[in-house]
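I have been asked to look over a protein record a colleague put together. This is what I was given:
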Amino acid sequence: MLLGGRLPVAQAQATLSLCTADLPAAIETVTERPEWARSRWGLLVQTQDGDATLYAREAEAFFLPASATKLLTTAAILHRLGPDFRIRTPVSAIGTAPTLDRLQLDGRGDPSMQRGQLRALAQTLQLQGVEQIRELVVTDRYFQHDPLHPTWELEDVLFYYGTAVNSLILDDNAVALTLYPQALGEPPRLVWGDRLAGQQWQIRNQAVTAASGTPDSIEMSGGLGTSVLNLRGAIAADAEPDKFSMAIPNPARYFLDTLQAELADFGITVAQAQIVPSPALAGELLGHLESPPLADLIRATNQPSNNVHAEALLQTLGVTTGQPEAALTALQTALTELGVESAAYQLRDGSGLSRHNLLSPMAVVQVLQGMARSPHFDTYRASLPVGGVSGTLRQRFQDTPLAGVVIAKTGTMTGVSTLSGYLNPSDYEPLVFSIMVNRSERSVTEQRAAIDEIVLLLGRVQPCEDKAASVPWSMPPHAPASSPKMATVYTQYGMIKRNN
């Protein structure tokens, strides 16, 4: 992107070398700008082998980590269970075709379960001659925690990123909702992506269609412990449809209803259907619905920063290690084995959505280093977004020397931005880093741009003994570090529009 006929300063300088001794001053040129006076920065940059620290700032202090938490969750379960582990959902039956007395599916919290798998099950039963099921049962107590996390905010649990995490997960326990403008003064028309999921919501539509050109002001709210969805605000008559992804209030019921609907599509009638606690297998084991291998599950967690996947994996870790009621204890045990100090973090969930999580840059760096020593390192690293290429970093570091080079996990919530991961500078040994911004009133775009500037600096480092042969780091002429205008020029290189 050109700015006044010239490449933006940060991007233009990204190819210049930077002596490690000059790195702290260069980083603080970013973090000490006036616009960050009310924000709090935590940083730690070390070599991947842990032998050298290039920069530290409040590295042992606690910060809200947002989705950096997923780095710990996915590392722990990969360390304990290995990349080939699969979640297997058993299906059993009593009786023989054409009538089954009972068909039972025992939920195992597979976060990858899709409707197509239930359709395939129904088709298999039809091919085996099944025409009727007297009792259809699904069980939903494999995970023994509260499906709605007690520390998540009420507003969050309305939407896909804060949906319930139970033992019967289907299509991420989320449903699409689209609002279409109507005639002037009329409420917008609501269209659900799935009727069975949408009918669980009780809609109070107080929104209106406003004059063309009116700014979109649609707001949604709900009641604590209810499935009421209140819509207020306005959508312009000439606006494009407004799209949302909503949580499913009762995902176990949605799973059962969907399975029954798929059976009906293949001509199999169900006399009675119910959700029950997990009993022993009922009758003969017919087989399992299998998840992809864990290597794929953690990639599906870290690349798009999927909260449902992260929470399901945390609970799976607890169950499979004999601690179904203490998944966070199982997490801590695994992290300790990886070399992460237990005093360096306090977690309440596995995804980072909870504002009760506390995490230090040091803990993040330790887990990154621990996984670098692991036989599963390649799998772990491949699960992370790649700058300018994939996941939540797809639109960052484009057209910079770090496109395809920086491999890191993002984290975002109101007032919080984080980025932590791996970087191989062209003239230095591999690095690990964790950068956290908290208590910031600046926009997400500004926070990310400042973090990316720091990462670009890391990509330029070289050993100090080669300083004489390097081009010294410097600010552009006539633009002091404290200049707000200079900050604007620096952040122009990559405006981020997506809030993820």
The longest strand covers residues 88-96. The mean pLDDT is 90.
